[in-house]
Amino acid sequence: MSVTTAVILLLAAGPRATESKLTCVEVANKLLNCMDYVEHGGNVPPSCCSGVKDLKAEAASADDRRAACECLKTLAKQVPGINPDLAAAIPGKCGVDIGYPISLSVDCSKYVTII
């Protein structure tokens, strides 16, 4: 079993922090095509950018946006080999403003709107 698959299974079993309809498994699945980039760099694949755009569109409520933010933090902590600087650069490289920085230290409760 791959590390990414193991993390997705762990996240699926974990408690939810909000009343979000968006699950961490859904967030992780949207961003699977970004994994090679955040581990090795290079060019951000178009499929990664599509996932980021889809995630932004699906994170319609404040609870969904907070849940997505918290999930990104959890994934960054639990998936080995992720370069945090590369992960943080994805929205800008994809031309998508997700409304909050991708960072382990971000306070997701402060970011409830996606521009």
Automatic annotation (TrEMBL):
Residues 1-20 form the signal peptide. GO terms for biological process: lipid transport. Keywords: Lipid-binding, Signal, Transport. Residues 24-108 form the Bifunctional inhibitor/plant lipid transfer protein/seed storage helical domain. Belongs to the plant LTP family. This is Non-specific lipid-transfer protein. One of its GO terms (molecular function) is lipid binding. Pfam families: Tryp_alpha_amyl. Plant non-specific lipid-transfer proteins transfer phospholipids as well as galactolipids across membranes. May play a role in wax or cutin deposition in the cell walls of expanding epidermal cells and certain secretory tissues. SUPFAM superfamilies: Bifunctional inhibitor/lipid-transfer protein/seed storage 2S albumin. PANTHER family: NON-SPECIFIC LIPID-TRANSFER PROTEIN 2-RELATED. It comes from Apostasia shenzhenica. InterPro entries: Bifun_inhib/LTP/seed_sf (IPR036312), Bifunc_inhib/LTP/seed_store (IPR016140), Plant_nsLTP (IPR000528). Coiled coil: none annotated.
